[in-house]
């Protein structure tokens, strides 16, 4: 049993999500419907995209403390420029992805601690967002709005989107050759360099992918909220880090799981809904989220540690 | 002589702070120098106190960082003000409560790190959510005023120096003495340089780690207690900005993010700099957005400048 969990790290995130989902349905049977599930997981789509973005950075042994500010900035750009002047909006978003790639180059070239550089960047993104939208406002482009509120038959949009994100990133990171090399940069950058790969470019690619998924997260968020403000997604920084770890990822060694990260993000989004069904005093909502996080991570430990002792 | 001064990693944060000071003065033609220095010392003291704690944690080595500082500050501030209930002569009791909250929070953090083997980032992050809930629950949106004597102390000055800065300097001297002169400091630095080697050398590394995580929480709680008294009451978001600030002052101050090397004077230089750079951008009449952006770019610029120096030598 414990061997099974150790060998298939993905089982634990799946189990955590299943238990939490079962508990939610038990508390609120009416949630067990097309509409209910959509409501439970709606906000999970941007969180899942942000978690995948964070995963790209953690994959190369760095950490991004600016992601929440970045997603907020993208949301502001989407609700203003992309709505009013689409061409300029697309150019700005492309520029932001390029800026992320540049960040990867800067961090690798000067051997800078990512935690500090991204910390500084969080001020930069936040400042830009504040300059674009000093007060909450803007309008979501209609096509994003309709994309995020589409009602596919049988399965709610949020579930379809989550499966799609997981499948695409799994293929990209786990199945393709370049994905394997990218994970290799996190595992042992020196040996990847010895094998003739340009590590600098690979790091730029990992950061650009993070930028791309960060942009998608911001656009998806605006599609749901219809307007934006400069602080709209600040909590995504912590949510995305927690999501990656919940999904079985490690901070070092390039050990990440795209499917796990998406499931981790769903679990975090569901935890918030579950707590509101518990009729817990609002004072304890945040604390209970922390407790759930600790609980799930503890479960992970039990399985891995037993395995170490056995073998 | 000059080369030994320049080779000190802390000198750059002081140079940067001085440059920011001069740039503000250039705009006001030298008026208000005393007031600016006084304000920088007052506000810088809070950043320096939490920065010192964060510095000790970062010294423990890669992956060690405390993300629960803002929550601990808020928790200590609200709990101590609630117990004091604006009654005079309860300042010592309030301090005791604040420190107790810090010790409890630090022990909880370390229990998660040690017993559950969680990465410190995740452990302190999860714990901070719980601390914040306790603060919200105990506070209930009340704004209790600090006792008059304590408020006077927190906003007052002795011999022209803000009292909060004096507290900060006293704590800095203690930290410096422990790091440079005491066995514990040697243990801490050794653990940060190579945990395995330190353990094999017989250093009780887990005790060192536990003490460090408790110390950072106690420093955060003292800062929270002082800040709540300084600003006339505790607020639930009072610690918010100190998460980024605490890490930024450590790194700008020249402490190695890779661990194993601490730098007390640099933390002070960086704390003064962080306040002065905001005043500088303020006095040049820039908007909030541009101000934030430039702050971020300046932080990154300093880190890049410090690293090119390191790579060349």
Description of the molecule:
The complex is a heterodimer of chains A (311) and B (313). Helices cover 77% and strands 0% of the residues of chain A. Chain A is an all-alpha fold. Chain A has one domain. In chain A, helix 4 packs antiparallel against helix 12 and helix 10 (157-175) packs antiparallel against helix 14 (258-277). Chain B has one domain (44-267). Chain B has helices spanning 2-6, 11-28, 33-59, 69-84, 91-115, 120-139, 148-155, 163-181, 183-193, 195-200, 205-230, 242-252, 264-283, 288-312, and strands spanning 157-158, 161-162. Chain B has a two-stranded antiparallel sheet with strand order 1-2. In chain B, strand 1 and strand 2 (161-162) form a beta hairpin. Chain B is globular and about 60 Å long. The model of chain B has no long low-confidence stretch (mean pLDDT 86).
Strand content of chain A: under 5%
Helix fraction of chain B, binned, reads over 70%
Please tell me the total number of domains of chain A.
1
Radius of gyration of chain A: 19 Å
- Annotation field: number of helices of chain B: 14
Roughly what is the average pLDDT of chain B, rounded to an integer? 86
Question: Keywords, please?
Answer:
heterodimer; A: mainly alpha; 15 helices; globular; B: about 325 residues; two-stranded antiparallel sheet; 14 helices
Please render the helix and strand layout as text.
The complex is a heterodimer of chains A (311) and B (313).
Chain A: H1 2-7, H2 11-27, H3 34-41, H4 44-59, H5 67-79, H6 81-84, H7 86-109, H8 114-132, H9 142-148, H10 157-175, H11 177-194, H12 199-225, H13 236-246, H14 258-277, H15 282-310
Chain B: H1 2-6, H2 11-28, H3 33-59, H4 69-84, H5 91-115, H6 120-139, H7 148-155, E1 157-158, E2 161-162, H8 163-181, H9 183-193, H10 195-200, H11 205-230, H12 242-252, H13 264-283, H14 288-312
Antiparallel strand pairs in B: 1-2
